[in-house]
Amino acid sequence: MRGVGRFFVLNGGALLGYPVDRIYEEVGFIAYYFHWPHDDIMSMEHAERRRWCEEISRINRKMNDETDKPNVFDVFSKRR
């Protein structure tokens, strides 16, 4: 399965919506750390939300002086 915008395309070409659980996870993650309003976060494209999640995780690693080891709370990097 490969991501295409807010949708996923299966090998056979079927188009599926972006997983709702993943959207909630991204929105919750950004809202928790940056306190941005729900509507602002939801209006972002998936790639932009993912980028902000990665940036927040990077900031957390740096603040916790954990740049050389994985952050157990960084749920987004575990999916790569």
List the topology elements.
Blueprint (H helix, E strand, L loop, with lengths): L1 E3 L2 E3 L5 E3 L2 H15 L3 H5 L3 H18 L17
Helix pairs in contact: 1-3
Description:
It is a single chain. The protein has 80 residues and is mainly alpha-helical. It is 48% helix and 11% strand. The chain has 3 helices and 3 strands, in the order βββααα. A 3-stranded antiparallel sheet has the order 1-2-3, with no helix packed on it. β1 (2-4) and β2 form a beta hairpin. α1 (20-34) packs across α3 (46-63). The longest helix has 18 residues, at 46-63. The two termini are 13 Å apart. The model is unreliable at 1-6 (pLDDT under 50).
Question: Strand arrangement, largest sheet?
Answer: 1-2-3
Rg, Å, rounded: 14 Å
Strands, total number: 3
**Overall 3D form:** globular
Spans of at least 5 consecutive residues with low confidence: 1-6
Amount of beta strand: 5-15%
Report the total helices. 3
Determine the structural class based on helices, strands and strand pairing.
mainly alpha
